[in-house]
Amino acid sequence: MAPLSDYRVVDLSSGIAGAYCTKILTDGGADVVKVEAPQGDPLRRWSASGAAIAPGEDGALFGFLAGSKRSVVAEPDDVEPLLAAADVVVWSRGSAVAESTWLAPNAIHDRHPHLVVTAITPFGLHGPWRDRPATEFTLQAWSGGAIGIGRGTQDRAPVHVGGQVGEWLAGAYAAAMTMAFLARVRRNGQGELVDLSMLETDVLCLTYYPVTYFEMLGRPWRTERRPTVPGIAQAADGLVALGCGTAQQWHDLCAMSGHDEWIDERTDLTITQQANLHADELYAWLRDQRVDDVRDLASAFRIPNSPVGDGANVTTMDHFVERGAFTVNPCNGVVQPGHPYRLSGVALRGPGPAPRLGEHTAEVLAEAPAPRPVPRGAAVSDRLPLSGLRVLDMTTFWAGPSCTHALGMLGAELIHLESTPHPDGTRLIAGIPASEPQWWERSPIFSALNTNKKGLTLDFQTDAGRDLLRRLIATCDVVVENFTPRVIEQLGLDFASVRALRDDVIMLRMPGFGLDGPWRDNPAFAYVIEDASGLSWLTGYPDRNPYEPYSVGDPNAGVHALNALLLALEHRRRTGEGVLVEAAMVDAALSVAAEQVIEYSAYGALLERAGNRGPAAAPQNLYRCRDVDEFGRDDSWVAIAVATDDQWIALRQALGRPDWAMEPRLADADGRRAAHDHLDRHLAAWCQPRTGDEIVETLWGAGVPVAKVMQPHRQAELPQLQHRGFFEQVDHPLNPTASHSTLPVGLAHGPRRFHRSPAPLLGEHNHELLRELGLDDAEIAALEEDGVIGTAPAVGGRRKAGRGS
Prior knowledge:
Largest sheet: 7 strands, mixed
Pfam families: CoA_transf_3
Strand order of the largest sheet: 3-2-1-4-5-6-24
GO molecular function, one term: CoA-transferase activity
Protein name: CoA transferase
Keywords: Transferase
InterPro entries: CoA-transferase_III_domain (IPR050483), CoA-Trfase_fam_III (IPR003673), CoA-Trfase_III_dom3_sf (IPR044855), CoA-Trfase_III_dom_1_sf (IPR023606)
Distance between the termini: 46 Å
């Protein structure tokens, strides 16, 4: 049986975010009953390419997201019996049923305290912006994600991440938070109102902890937009993606391109600055090379690389073909991604047909399942759903730690394992001079990703280190790692070996490209994952190469791995069995880029990047306003997106009904889309003499989705985030107190704080954890002497051949 096969979900949501959340739950085995108004979910009529959908038919994306669900057309009063017998409600605005007062999330939670009620809204259910209109595009602007970590170039407007990626990320987070609090319901019967904010999701997934960085170091991560180099580049026969995430990879790229002299040329510059210095020469060299030759050479040098995927070609790439990454919808024959993770010995539901509107109304309403017991005075002293879970965190950089960080904020005990020869990579990327005392403890990124964790160093390239690691594994419920597959296998720590140490262990492996296939040993940083999967393809301007989002691949992998782990934990609870979880970064990326493949397979339409325009709204764009930015530049922008005809009418009214806006051809979305250039000229002229605040005040109050394009490090200044307490102040023994982002949810019965302790110093808990394994002070001192453990980078370890090496 699938892990969630005993659970019923009442789905009161509309749109991609709710649909993807409930798809994850459906694939996990839950019985999902989709309650719709007579008009049906608007997603049934959706096609990003504008393909015609025949009367009585549903769009291909709906077919993917609604597979194996049941559809009920009902009045609000009919829903009450379903709630009493359910475990979960997923809610969003968008239908007459969901927006009835009787079925508001707070009302449902009050009447049915046993339920996990997950509400997905742009800003959250509470706060000064709770009722403000927004689209995924304007949320990216408010979050700082439209500028991100330097995406684009200064000669044009910033560019958003294409593909409505924020909707998919919000759905993945909603599913994970739902399953986490179901675990608490099982423990003490106390349900939860999970109030998910899409804005907060974008902050977590489209920017790289810029507030913590700014407050700890006194400077922003980026001050200007520039493309990654090489990034996506033109080769002789097509586009190829290359990247440098470390100094070694930059040195190897210099050697690969025949320019060893660049390696020591400007050691005063970061690798990003060095790459930009030689960008023209690199691109000139690449234009003379074939894609396959570049990739073969880069792989030999261990430089991250990939082809550039899109909706037409990604299904034919050899790695995805060999791994069976795509499947066929049995109902409509459309090609679609498979599951974003693989669980050994665990049955996940395969693709099934999407329901016709109201297909199961009579069936579901005739059922009389027993109501769930209502808790009476259930103990809620422990509000953390994952208390008692012990996790060994062998991850580094962003993807793996973002998964384990969520586990820690939800109450799990986290042991973050590093070694002195190889500390977590995020300790090393902040540009702190090595002359500063304990420079490796100063990284804002490490601090932001590793609160609530204990720090242990073990050089497991030594016999003593490997022995201690095995002893530690035997005490842990979960082991998480994100090395390339060959590293773990060389250590003798494959799943069979780990399970021999603890039979019911869950091992979560997070390789970039998976545990098998021709690319399995390729190094995989976020940008390469974005390139290969198609996430980059829709980001940027049509007359330029795609821009890498450079901010989605890692946190997206982290939240999908979290979902996979929660499914594995539920399977273990039911069966007592250990589980190997393979949560490849690229599989998670293929899932949130699914629309490209689906549109191409169903309609022959290749979705293309369009700058800041998009299929969900017209007009939609960024417009320059009068403000001078904090760096003294004429580079301040507002985002405007008109998603409905009513919003268009509101925009016309707010602008004073100018003649250019009153043309009959603009009355519907198709007409506005055809006249987008015309609309952009007039909106740009209206915005230019006004400040961003004036534009927002005029349009937002009238009901038009609008946003200032925020610098990412100014996120904590947003009144909505302040009201919801999204940032918490975290003290640190060496660093200044700084704001740290939390989880993108408000909770009715949640913890008072998510951050209970700061990120650990390197090896801070060595003595505590090793004593738990039975070592005495003399034995621990000997390990320090031999370099097996330590508290400073590159001290000891394999430098000494003594004991256990």
